[in-house]
């Protein structure tokens, strides 16, 4: 999925998910609008027995039916919940293209007919241009397929039919001007949407990420724990938490300074992320406390992970600049969700196990 270069790399996955949702939503709404307009247009032609614009019957059906059929097909795919990330974008482009095919194709005949028919189709074409550009969702790049391709094809057909370029440009001046304005507005809206997304993500990051370690903060982890509890009650998937407290960490700050302590905390955060799975969540729970959430994990799996983390701290001293490496250990408390307790009670049990690990000599793992 396309992501502009102005979006920081850490936000691009979130942008791709948000764009997929937006494209799907716009695709469904566009399909209903085009379906409704096509039904009215085709219905009025059937009632009158002829169209206001004189065309060959075959051309008439060939211009009116594609938007109707494409919209129906898109809605069927939506309501049947067809899997796949890319088809809503493809269908949105086809809806725009078929609608512009119908409008521009009819405009070719209206241009030759002149009079009220031409003026009516010009107004409809201008409205269609704005609609097609607004649903492109990707600024100038998004307008290429649904707008520029049918527009250039229309102008090519008009020139092929022998219309003088100067006369054609004069008669279609408002049409070309409207196209330029529509593309400009679309690009401005697109840049505004991207800027708003970045601002929203930065604000969310400030409220959910610990600024020193880059891990989730306590608030974000509390929300994640509640989500995991709800998931357990839906699917009965067990989960566990590991509460880690660094042993004698105050001595690092006292002997080497707070900057060295911050470096150790950042390196510990990196090691915790390195030795946990992608689906696991790691948070800075307090000053030198860290909490690890392990979805789909029983007691034995939690003990294995905790031992891996303990070893990663104990066996590899921490570099703090020009001074000798600092040895840092941690004590670990484990609690597995019992299916009934609150998140705070689960953390309290892990804290009790952590206290036992401290009492038993530190640098060890205890299960609640």
TrEMBL record:
<dbReference type="InterPro" id="IPR000160">
    <property type="entry name" value="GGDEF_dom"/>
</dbReference>
<keyword id="KW-0548">Nucleotidyltransferase</keyword>
<feature type="transmembrane region" description="Helical">
    <location>
        <begin position="117"/>
        <end position="137"/>
    </location>
</feature>
<keyword id="KW-1133">Transmembrane helix</keyword>
<keyword id="KW-0808">Transferase</keyword>
<dbReference type="GO" id="GO:0052621">
    <property type="term" value="F:diguanylate cyclase activity"/>
</dbReference>
<keyword id="KW-0472">Membrane</keyword>
<feature type="transmembrane region" description="Helical">
    <location>
        <begin position="26"/>
        <end position="47"/>
    </location>
</feature>
<dbReference type="InterPro" id="IPR043128">
    <property type="entry name" value="Rev_trsase/Diguanyl_cyclase"/>
</dbReference>
<dbReference type="InterPro" id="IPR050469">
    <property type="entry name" value="Diguanylate_Cyclase"/>
</dbReference>
<feature type="transmembrane region" description="Helical">
    <location>
        <begin position="168"/>
        <end position="190"/>
    </location>
</feature>
<feature type="domain" description="GGDEF">
    <location>
        <begin position="237"/>
        <end position="368"/>
    </location>
</feature>
<dbReference type="InterPro" id="IPR029787">
    <property type="entry name" value="Nucleotide_cyclase"/>
</dbReference>
<feature type="transmembrane region" description="Helical">
    <location>
        <begin position="59"/>
        <end position="79"/>
    </location>
</feature>
<feature type="transmembrane region" description="Helical">
    <location>
        <begin position="91"/>
        <end position="111"/>
    </location>
</feature>
<dbReference type="Pfam" id="PF00990">
    <property type="entry name" value="GGDEF"/>
</dbReference>
<protein>
    <recommendedName>
        <fullName>diguanylate cyclase</fullName>
        <ecNumber>2.7.7.65</ecNumber>
    </recommendedName>
</protein>
<keyword id="KW-0812">Transmembrane</keyword>
């Amino acid at each position: 999925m396309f992501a502009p270069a102005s979006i920081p790399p850490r936000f691009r996955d979130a942008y791709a998910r948000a764009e997929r949702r937006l494209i799907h939503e716009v695709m469904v709404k566009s399909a209903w609008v085009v379906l409704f307009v096509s039904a009215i247009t085709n219905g009025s032609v059937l009632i009158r027995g002829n169209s206001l614009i004189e065309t060959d019957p075959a051309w008439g059906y060939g211009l009116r039916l594609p938007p109707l059929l494409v919209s129906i097909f898109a809605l069927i795919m939506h309501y049947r919940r067809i899997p796949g990330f890319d088809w809503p974008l493809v269908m949105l482009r086809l809806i725009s293209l078929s609608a512009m095919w119908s409008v521009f194709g009819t405009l070719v005949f209206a241009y030759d007919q002149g009079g009220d028919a031409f003026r009516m189709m010009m107004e409809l074409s201008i409205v269609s241009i704005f609609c097609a550009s607004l649903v492109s969702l990707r600024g100038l790049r998004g307008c290429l397929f649904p707008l520029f391709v049918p527009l250039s094809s229309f102008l090519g057909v008009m020139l092929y039919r022998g219309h003088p370029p100067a006369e054609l440009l004069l008669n279609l001046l408002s049409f070309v001007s409207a196209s330029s304005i529509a593309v400009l507005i679309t690009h401005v809206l697109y840049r505004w949407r991207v800027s708003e997304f970045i601002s929203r993500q930065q604000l969310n990051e400030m409220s959910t990420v610990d600024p020193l370690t880059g891990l989730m903060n306590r608030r974000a982890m509390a929300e994640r724990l509640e989500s995991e509890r709800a998931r357990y009650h839906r699917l009965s998937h067990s989960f566990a938490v590991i509460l880690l407290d660094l042993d004698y960490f105050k001595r690092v700050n006292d002997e080497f300074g707070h900057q060295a302590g911050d470096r150790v905390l950042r390196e510990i955060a990196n090691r915790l992320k390195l030795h946990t799975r992608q689906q696991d969540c790691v948070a800075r729970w307090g000053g030198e406390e860290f909490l690890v959430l392990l979805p789909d994990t029983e007691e034995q799996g939690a003990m294995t992970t905790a031992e891996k983390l303990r070893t990663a701290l104990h066996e590899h001293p921490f570099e703090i600049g020009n001074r000798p490496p600092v040895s840092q250990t941690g004590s670990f408390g484990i609690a597995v969700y019992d299916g009934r307790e609150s998140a705070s009670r689960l953390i309290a049990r892990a804290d009790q196990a952590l206290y036992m690990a401290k009492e038993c000599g530190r640098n060890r793992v205890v299960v609640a």
